Amino acid sequence: MALLLGPAGIGLFGLYSSICDLTRSVAGLGINSSGVRQIAEAVGTGDAQRIARTVTTLRRVALYSGALGALLLLIFSKPLSRLTFGNHEHTEAVALLALAVFFGDVSAAQGALVQGMRRISDLARMSVLGALYGTLFSIPIIYFFRERGVVPSLVCVAAMGILTSWWYARKIKVERVRLSMRQITDETGALLKLGVVFMASVLMMMGTAYLTRIIVLRKINLEAAGCFQAAWTLGGYYISFILQAMGADFYPRLTAVANDHAECNRLVNEQAEVGLLLAGPGVIATLTFAPLVMQLFYASEFWPAVEVLRWICLGMTLRVASWPMGFILLAKGERKLFFWSEFLSNVLFVGLVWLGVGFWGLKGTGIAFFELYVVYWIGIYVIVRRLSGFRWSSANRRVMLLLAPTVAVVFASWYFLSNLAAMIFGAVMTLLAGIYSLRMLCTLIPLKRFPQLARKMIIFFRLAQPDTTV
User: Fold this and answer.
1) 404-422 core/surface letters (b: 16 or more CB in 10 A; e: else)
2) For the whole model, what pTM was predicted?
C-alpha cells in the first residue's frame, strides 16, 4: 500500500482507520473486552448455564452495538469529514466506513468468546487468516483504485475478519438457553459495568490517535501524517505481536487469581520478564536497522519517519515493562483507578504531541511517545504497589539493568558514529542481546515447549541442553 499510495495516501489510510476505530469504541461500549473477563469468570465456575447466558448476551449486545455504530457513522459522516479534513469531499467515504464498523464489532465479540474460552491456538489462527484474506482482497483494490480504494479495502479487511472469527467461534459448543428479560438485563448490566470503563479507555486511546494525526496534518501536512503512520505502524508491530500473544492467555489467568496478591504479582512479574526478553532484541534491531526497515516496508519517500521510529522504539521498551502491571487494575475490577490512569496518560500524550510538533516538527511525535511512557511506567508502578504490594522481582531488575543501557547506547550511537559504524555496532549488540534473551527463555520455558525446528537450533548452538527425560 505504501508503494502504491505514497506518504499522503498512507496518511489518508491512517485518518480513515482512526475514524472507524473511534466509532467502534463509542458504539461498542467496551463489551467485547469486558466479555473476555465475564466469559473467563463463567468458565472458572464450570456452570454451563452461566457460560451460555454470558455468551448469548454478548453476541446479542455486539450485534446491536455494531448496528448502532454503523448508524451513527452514517448520520455524522458529513460533520466528521469536515472536522477531519476541513471539507465535505470525504463524506461518502466516511459513510462507507459504517460497514467496517459493523463487521468489526461483531468480529470482536466472536474473538472475545474464543479468548475467554482460552482457545489460544484458534485465536492465533483467526487473527492470521483474517489478516491474510483481507490482504489478498484489499491490495488489488488499492492497485486499481488507488486513494479511492482505501475505504473499500478497510471494509474488505473487516469482512474477512468476521468470516474467520465466525469459523472458529462456531467450533465452541454452547448450550442453547432461553433468557428472561430479568436475566438479559442482569447479564447486560454485568457486561456494561466494566465495559463502559473499557470503552472509555479505548475511546481515549483512539481519540488520542485521531487527534495526534489531526495535529500533524494541521501543523505540518498530509505527507507528514503518512510518515507518522508508517513509524507508528512499524514501531508497534513487533511489540504488539508480543503483547497480544501474551495477553490472550495472561488476562484470563490473572482474572482467575485476582484476589490472591502473591499469585497475582508472581504472574505479572513472570509476564514482564518474558515480555522484556522477547522485546529487547527486536527493539535493538529496529533501532539499528530503522533506515533499512523503512525502505523495505515502505519507500524512500518515508525517510522522515526513521527518526520518529527510533523514539517510538524507546517508548515501546517502557510499554512492555509497564503493560503487565496495568492488567492488575483490570483483573481486580478497579474501574475508577483504571479510568483515571488512562485518562491522564492520554491527555498528557496529546499535550506532549502538541508541544513536540511545535518544537521539533515530525520528530516531536516520537519524543512525546517516549516521554509519555517514562511518566506512565513510574505512575502505574506506584499505583499497583499500593493496590497489591507489587514489587519487581530480582530477575526483572537484572533484565532491565541490562536492557535499558543497551537500548540507550544503540540509540545514541546514531548521533555519535557514522551510519555504517552505528549499524555494525547495533548489529553486534542485537546478536548479543538475542543470545542472552534466548538463554534466559530456555531456563524459563521447558525445551519441549519450543517448536521442533527452534528446538534443534537451540541445541545445535548449545543454548540449552537436550531434554533426556522420558
Assistant:
1) bebbeebbebbeeeeeeeb
2) 0.69
